[in-house]
Amino acid sequence: MFVAVAPGAFAQVTPPKLTKEAPTGTVEKLTDAKFVEKASQCDANEIALGKVAVAMASSPQVKQFAQKMIDDHTKCCKMLMEAASPKGFTCVTEMDAKHKDLRVKLESMKGADFDREYMKHVVMGHEMAVKMFQQQAQNGQDANLKAFAAKTLPALQQHQTMAQEIMTGLQKGTTKTGSVIQR
Q1: Domain enclosing residue 147, as ranges
Q2: Is residue 144 within 8 Å of residue 86, measured between CB atoms?
Q3: Each residue's pLDDT tens digit, 78-135
Q4: CATH of the domain at 44
């Protein structure tokens, strides 16, 4: 169960806007409870969309990356639960409505169009997640959650870099088919 907070006691994460350049979302200060909610929501979304991409991506590189998202975000979710449970925080385990709609959209797409759309959303999501985890690692109140955020941040930054590289390759038509993504 989440700890009750007064209305307005925390700020919301503003989703990034789509531009040709890297999206720039802003993350305002979150309570520990809201961080747990948003971080676990990110995990649930990445896992579910990763499963769609493993099944539907045309690029082997995108499929491999999607499997990495499933594996890494499943581990992240377990670590978050361990850090959050002692304080009575609960984690989100299902996709939010926005990402359910995205899943439906992705499932209607094929080939390179699917790959580009999936990777675009991964890039945006990880940019926002990196900022949120940086903020939590620096300013969170709970020591366990701060440590979790600090420990998880390098993996999220790696995901962000990999996703940007794959997206750039997809946009230029230069992704390597059959290449293996470093784990």
Answers
A1: 30-172
A2: yes
A3: 999 999 999 999 999 999 999 999 999 999 999 999 999 999 999 999 999 999 999 9
A4: 1.20.1260.10
182 found inside a domain: no
Of 111, 103, 127, the residue nearest 44 (C-alpha): 103
User: For the chain, how many structural domains are there in total?
Assistant: 1
Cα 180 to Cα 83: distance, rounded to the nearest angstrom: 32
Half-sphere exposure of 171 (CA within 13 A, CB side): 10
Residue 174 is predicted with a pLDDT of 61
How distant, in Å, are the alpha carbons of 26, 124, 182 from that of 160? Answer: 16, 9, 14
Residue 111 domain flag? yes
Alpha-carbon dihedral 29, 20, 51, 83, rounded to 10 degrees? -20
Half-sphere exposure of 119 (CA within 13 A, CB side): 28
Give SS3 for 6: coil
In a domain, 4, yes or no: no
What is the per-residue pLDDT across 128-156, written as a single tens digit (0 to 9) for each? Answer: 999 999 999 999 999 999 999 999 999 99
E strand or H helix at 13, and its extent? strand 13-14
